[in-house]
Amino acid sequence: MSRRRKKGHGGHESHERWLITYADLITLLMIFFVVMYAMSSIDQSKFDSLSVSMNKALNPNNKVQIDSMGNTGIISKTTKEGEKDAKDDKTQLGATEAEKEQQRLDDLKAKVEKFIHDNNLAGQINVIDTERGVQITLNDTALFESGSATLKVEAQRILGGMAPFLQIVPNEIAVEGHTDNVPINNARFPSNWELSATRAINVLHDIESKGVPAKRLHAVGYADTMPLGPNDTAKNRSSNRRVNLIVLREHKAESISPIDKEHVIQP
Questions:
Q1: pLDDT at 227 over 70
Q2: Do residues 173 and 133 lie in contact, with contact meaning Cβ atoms separated by under 8 Å?
Q3: Alpha carbon 181 to chain centroid distance?
Q4: Where are the alpha helices (DSSP H) in 119-233?
Q5: Which three-class secondary structure state does DSSP give residue 177?
Q6: Where in the chain does DSSP place strands (E)?
Q7: Which residue of 38, 115, 182, 241 could cross-link 50, Cys pair, CB 3.0 to 4.6 Å?
């Protein structure tokens, strides 16, 4: 007698497996939009938040290295834009500082002009605004005896009157000595180089003693190499014998040459 087998029931068939796939898809979409949102505006706090979210969503045991995204095109573009903005800000700041400096130099020039006018020194001192800075030119007759580098008493008074103007500006000051082309050869000054340099140094020491900081000063002698005019007349030679006090610009230094040749005529 045969036995009839009972139909066994297989495992319970699940009709909800699609929910797992759906949940995975939603999770991935959420991660995608979070990444896109964070990358749209680079911010450290957003990156930190994104890292935490991705770690939780993907695998709590694996840390997502958000820093590695720094080489993506979007971040590189943002970095370049940030660098450009920084350069623009620096340029704007430089322009503002240059304007402030120009105002200081204009004020200095005005004060020196007033000093010259009030003391009837128009024939002995001249002041101009050059590319290098404000240049105060003192004729040698106002400063020294012929062939000498010792400052006259009147010269010390003149420099003392201008020293307060030079103290209030922070710029460096170049003291430059010049001579004519008449040779000199004595025990103290073997040539015009020594004469021009010593005259510049003595003027430097004098304004330093009157309160202009030494760290802002330097002196140089040019002998007869940079004349204002040809040394063919006594008047021209007198003009070439001079000491320049140049209050140097701090900005646009790359465009400044050692000597402002715009005001120099080669013989």
A1: yes
A2: no
A3: 38
A4: 140-143, 153-167, 192-209
A5: strand
A6: 125-129, 133-139, 173-178, 217-221, 242-248
A7: 38
Query: Any idea which residue has 């201008």 for tokens?
Result: 162
Contacts of 90-95 with C-beta under 8 Å, sequence gap 24+, read: 94/251
Of 185, 159, 117, the closest CA to residue 243 belongs to 159
Q: Is the pLDDT of residue 13 over 60?
A: no
Question: What's the whole-model pTM score?
Answer: 0.62
Sketch the domain layout of the chain as residue ranges.
Answer: 17-71, 100-263
Structure tokens at 22: 């759906």
Quick check: 243 and 140 in contact, CB under 8 A?
yes
Q: Which amino acid is at 124?
A: Q
| Torsions phi, psi for 48 (to 5 deg) | -65, -45
Say which CATH class 100-263 falls into: alpha beta
Residue bearing tokens 């001249």: 126
Q: At what angle do helices 44-58 and 17-40 cross, to 10 degrees?
A: 170
| Single-letter code of the amino acid located at 60 | P
Q: Which residue has the higher pLDDT, 67 or 153?
A: 153
Q: Torsion over CA of 88, 93, 98 and 99, rounded to 10 degrees?
A: 100
Residue partners of 157: CB distance under 8 A and separation at least 6: none
- 137 forms bridges with which residues in the sheet? 126, 244
